[in-house]
Amino acid sequence: MPGSVNYAISQATEWLLKNQSRGGGWAERSGKEVSTLNSAEAIIAVLEGGCVVPGDKRIQDGVKFLKAHQCQEGPETGAWMREFHDSQGQSCKIPDLVRTSFALIALIKAGVGVEDAPVKNGVKWLLSLRKEEDGYTAWGFRRGTSLDLMPSVISLLALMEAYRAGLTECREPIEMGMKYLLERCRNSSGSFGAQGHLEAVHTIYAAMALQTAGQCKDLRCHSRRDEEGAIEWLLNHPNEARKLVEENILIVPKDEQGSYGFLFMTDALLIKVLMNSEFRTSKLAREALMSLREKRVDEGGFYGYRVFSWSTAKAISALSVAVPHFQEFPERQPEYVGIKSGHFILSFHVILAGMLVYLTKIGQLTFGHIVIFMALMIGTLLAYGKIGEITFKELFKILVNAFKSRSGNNNNKAKNQND
Fold it and tell me: pLDDT tens for residues 130-163?
């Protein structure tokens, strides 16, 4: 059925396979240069979607493409390279942690053994990038760079895929990397990474790593509460959790052309996290699914800013996790048409302006009146900016929750003083 989640997965898979190059790889968009990262993401998604099996010729063509582009000699043996043009227009290649991690996941899902050279060498290269800093051992985006949350999470996801496939030597590096990840948790709120526009994305990826670790046999590197805290933060910050964001990383410090741009399809990432939790039917999960449906085009692909292979791949992976719980996409409910509290504030603002004009015409306006009216008018605008389109019912709930929170804090303070 056109409105079903399975139909969307099938159509998106077909769209991806139609856009596979003759050489077996995928480009970001049809007609663009083929990329190992886009190819790995497409292979992962097509297999997770369940419409194609690992032995399918198209998957194996993709595997051959990835193997052919893996570095085979020198200190970067096992890595997948990223190619860019420097400020002088010269073609440069640098070993890429992101490409290597996704390529490893793709190969393992496609049936390549963990003892086979492509996987063994890729894992060995990833492990060689680890760095010890402030008592933690994890990853930066390049060899010798400072530890960071995103490269650590991406590396951990690849290593956990290898560990689940039987590569037991990954266990200790995973546990050490997870310790660093947990150190980046802002325990007071449950979010991960620094405050800012990337806080939600970092929290989503951290939750994904925690969930994956929980699925790995014998791994004991975090508590259930760590995962729950991250998801609770996302539920409490729905706007931030679903916002499409971009991160720019300077991989080559001496050349800005080497910067790396990440555009995160947050709705799809959020769906994967929530569907693997007890909040799979939450309002946030349903809104993310509705939003993802609206990103779908008639041909089957999904778009970030445009219809991309990577955004379609992310959508397939998310929907494949959602389909056991949602056979159909949720329907968007009509917007509540009740009275909005902000409308009364604006009406009061208009009344004040009218009174100001009237007093001016009849000559009864004093300096004191001007000060009072201006203060009230500025106050009403600030109040509207804060409240916006919130209904009276929603405003009442916010005030009640704020009162309860304040009362709870006062009680805790009193208890601590008594202790």
Answer: 999 999 999 999 888 899 999 999 999 999 999 9
Bridge partners (DSSP) of residue 250 are: 259
By residue range, what is the domain housing residue 376? 341-418
Flag whether 80 is in a domain.
Answer: yes
Number of domains the chain contains: 2
Give the gyration radius of the chain's Cα atoms: 26
Number of Cβ within 10 Å of residue 72's Cβ equals: 13
Query: What is the C-alpha separation between 211 and 138, in angstroms, rounded?
Result: 19
Does the pLDDT value for residue 90 go beyond 90? no
Q: How far is CA 400 from CA 287, 341, 389, 403, in A?
A: 25, 16, 18, 5
Task: Please say whether the beta carbons of 102 and 123 come within 8 A.
Answer: no
Pairwise pLDDT comparison (363 vs 324), residue with the higher score? 324
| 288-304 residue pLDDT tens | 999 999 999 988 998 87
What whole-number distance in Å separates Cα of residue 88 and Cα of residue 98? 25
Backbone angles phi, psi at 323, to 5 degrees: -60, -30
What tokens appear for 31 in the block?
């007609």
Nearest-angstrom CA–CA distance, 127 and 113: 18
- DSSP designation for 52: S
Looking at the structure, tell me whether residues 116 and 219 fall in a common domain: yes
Residues 147, 131 contacting (CB under 8 angstroms): yes
Q: Closest Cα partner for 277 from 227, 241, 242?
A: 227
91-96 and 80-85 as β-strands: parallel, antiparallel, unpaired? antiparallel
